[in-house]
């Protein structure tokens, strides 16, 4: 892709790169970046693009991948801005020759040591609609690194706002307890919100060796579908969904059953979309 397609880029420095999952499972890193550009500012829910220099396959000069910002507001000194992203080291299998290849952006970031400079673009507008009314309900559904924007939302709701009167529910699935990003024994900064009266997190683990995190999330939704469906039917409820694209099938299955039919569920979802109360971010 060309520089024009990329848009303006700024330089970011890796301040910290910490693995937040054990060696026995997929590598996920919490990476802190710093930008010393006075004009660079962001808001909760926004994302940045990481530009990986080439050459790449098909002769592309650059490769760009977007990542959600995992904190709600900038930190650091006045002359610079610091923020964090959540990166899972990815690999893919070539369907033709069966060879295993590393994901370009994820491996580039996971290999980056503190002090390394990288080019980023953005920030980009958030795909999520978070209500300004503190009495509104918020239902967050996600798997994997899709939890990153929800972490930022919780920080905003309970730290910046000071209090949130509506119900806030997080549904999250993972393969193992250590894959509960930001909610495991080593990294538990989301657990501080468990004391909030209006907040509840429903997490499910894959109970079988070949079970996926998306299937675990489906179980979590099924166990609490009555509460989730009751909230969705309220006119002041906003739904935010993030994670692997296959998550959509599991979610449609659970809520289709709760609604009585797939048609009724799709009609409800479309109504929320039309009213600006449904937002989603899927990645392959």
Structure, briefly:
The protein is an alpha/beta fold and 284 residues long.
| Whole-number total of structural domains | 2
- What fraction of the residues are assigned to beta strands by DSSP? 25-35%
Count of DSSP helices?
7
- Uncertain stretches: 176-187
Radius of gyration: 19 Å
Strand order of the largest sheet: 4-3-8-1-2-5
Specify the structural class.
Answer: alpha/beta
Q: Report helical residue fraction.
A: 10-25%
Helix-strand topology string: HEEEEEEEHEEHEEHHEHHE
Q: At the third CATH level, what is the topology name of the largest domain?
A: Rossmann fold
N-end to C-end Cα span: 20 Å
Q: So, the CATH homologous superfamily of the largest domain?
A: Nucleotide-binding domain of ferredoxin-NADP reductase (FNR) module
CATH architecture of the largest domain: 3-Layer(aba) Sandwich
Q: Average pLDDT across residues?
A: 80
How many DSSP-defined strands? 13
- What's the CATH first level of the largest domain? Alpha Beta
């Amino acid at each position: 892709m060309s520089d024009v397609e990329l848009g303006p880029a700024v330089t970011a420095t890796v301040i910290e790169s910490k693995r937040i999952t054990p060696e026995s499972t997929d590598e996920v890193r919490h990476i802190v970046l710093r930008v010393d550009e006075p004009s660079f500012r962001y808001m909760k829910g926004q994302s940045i693009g990481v530009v990986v220099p080439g050459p790449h396959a098909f002769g592309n000069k650059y490769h760009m991948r977007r990542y959600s910002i995992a904190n709600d507001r900038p930190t650091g000194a006045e002359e610079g801005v610091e923020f964090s992203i959540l990166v899972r080291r990815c690999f893919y299998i070539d369907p033709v020759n069966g060879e295993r290849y590393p994901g370009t952006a994820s491996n580039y970031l996971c290999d980056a040591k503190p002090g390394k400079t990288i080019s980023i673009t953005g920030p980009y507008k958030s795909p999520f609609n978070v209500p300004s009314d503190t009495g509104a309900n918020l239902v967050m559904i996600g798997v994997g690194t899709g939890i990153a924007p929800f972490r930022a939302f919780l920080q905003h709701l309970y730290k910046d706002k000071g209090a949130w009167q509506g119900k806030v529910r997080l549904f999250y699935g993972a393969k193992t307890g250590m894959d509960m990003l930001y909610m495991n024994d080593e990294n538990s900064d989301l657990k501080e919100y468990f004391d909030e009266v209006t907040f509840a997190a429903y997490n499910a683990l894959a109970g079988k060796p070949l079970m996926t995190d998306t299937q675990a999330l489906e179980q979590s939704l099924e166990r609490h579908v009555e509460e989730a469906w009751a909230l969705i039917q309220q006119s002041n409820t906003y739904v935010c969904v993030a994670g692997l694209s296959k998550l959509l099938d599991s979610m449609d299955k659970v809520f289709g059953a709760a609604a009585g039919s797939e048609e009724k569920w799709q009609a409800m979802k479309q109504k929320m979309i039309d009213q600006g109360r449904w937002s989603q971010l899927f990645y392959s």
